[in-house]
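Pilot study result, target chain (170 residues):
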Amino acid sequence: MRAHSPNNSVTLEATQAVGQEVLRDALQPVLELLEARGAKPKPNGEDRMTNDHITVVYKWTAKQGKLDELKSIYEEVTEAMKQNEADAEAVHCFVSEKDNALSVRDEFKDAAAMGYHLSTTAAAHFPKLLAIAVPGPFFFFGDVPEELQQATQQMQLGGEFSAHAFGFDR
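Predicted structure:
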């Protein structure tokens, strides 16, 4: 499969591999900083840290005719998170046929869990998603460290960050 641009063409696979490396490189310093602060998330949930919960709500708008493919990729993302990210507490996807879009709510135990997700599952799927959909906006709710905010800004997600002020759970 090839992706074409007016000036050149490159293989989609090569573009995806480069995209994964760029994401991992951008997030590595953040993960190291979180680890230095005592936060070292592990896929099996051992040594969980106890920082604030983070919720991320975001939207992907599929390119024409690509909504089913977008849903399929997110089924893979959801399963990968369920199997490999013990501190990813929930993922819920919502489809709008009218808007040709998929909206998602991710729930993470803490910033380390979100950083782990971005450097693993997200990094593995992000290039495929960019090939068929437009990301954003992304809303991050909770105590997201400045370094992690900067990493998400490098990913050009149109991210907005808000700290918890008040509320309740039942």
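One observation from the pilot: Confidence is low (pLDDT under 50) at residues 1-16, 44-51. A full batch analysis is planned for the follow-on phase.
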